[in-house]
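G., the chain you wanted modeled:
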Amino acid sequence: MKTLVTFIITLILFFLTITGNANSSLKANFTTGNPEIKSINSMTFGPKCILFIGDSKSAQIVAIDVSSHPKVDNSKVKIDLLDQLIADMLGTTTDQIQITDMAVNPENNNIYLSVHHGSGTAILFKVDNNKLKPVSLDNISHSKTSLLDPIAMDAKDKRGRELRKWAVADMQYTSGKIMLSGLSNKEFGSTFRSIDFPFTKEQNYSSLEIYHAAHGKYETHAPIKAFVPTKIKGSSHIIAGYTCTPLVIFPTDQIKPGVHNKGRTVAELGSGNSPIDMIEVENGGKRYLLIANSNRPLMKMEFSDLETYEGSLTTPVIKKGAAVGVDYVNLPFVNVQQLDNYGPSGFLIVQRESNGNLALKQGRTWWIEK
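Predicted structure as tokens:
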């Protein structure tokens, strides 16, 4: 009996050791110090409470360890006058701050907000019992990698607008890789990167081309503004949203280093608009795509419709603002500025309400129930 007990204990310790080594290997190259983050343009979570920060100004991806942050109860999160609260904490006015992204840690539902100050400073906040607490980035456990061939610091578009902020447009962690959209300094500027994590010296990226129905032409310079890695008919794909507002599907296995890729445009969601965030949610056994927009309501699209639509838009949409392709539903959430998953089937939003209040709150999952 003692031999059996000893064997079981040894076996348990063995598996715990393997798990611990696997977990620690993700942070084996982390160092403690100042990662010198100059901007926070996009955030996403990986495993083991690793928060990835896309820093366009420095053209780098930084992984920071937030596992020491205690889990808080955000089940009834609701913060009103969010912009005024942030401005007061920073000793400035609301016109000097911009919330650049929001990320929810899927392991504990801790909520993080990134803010750009008018002085050029990037600040990270954590939501703690309906209050905001600054997260110091001066001395934190981290690892980082620089982007190859980012868009130049002084690059501008035809309207004279700076393009460097789109060096990192959106990013997601999946299966040991950081998937990242943005602009490079190459001839075909629209770029999709796949970066191994833990970071190595290698970095793969490819150029992208899409048919933009609202513009009536093929384009290679506009970055993917928001995307999700997902499964369509069992195969890995990227669903990508562009400004003005084509929705495009790329098979992941066709996005290869140095290869120019053409996506399949499956919807035109209406011109005069830009996607802000995009998430996949599941409720009642059905999968949905939610898209937050700059100038349109929150959209809901059923994955079953995406999977059955086999066409591709290749002709112009003449009517301004019209939508064609895969059907979607406008949900009664307007002026949604940030969007992320919350729990197994919920979602979290930062929304400018009709009375002018900027609120951080949960979206009503009633709208994504069967």
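The first helix runs from residue 2 to 25.

Shout if anything looks off.
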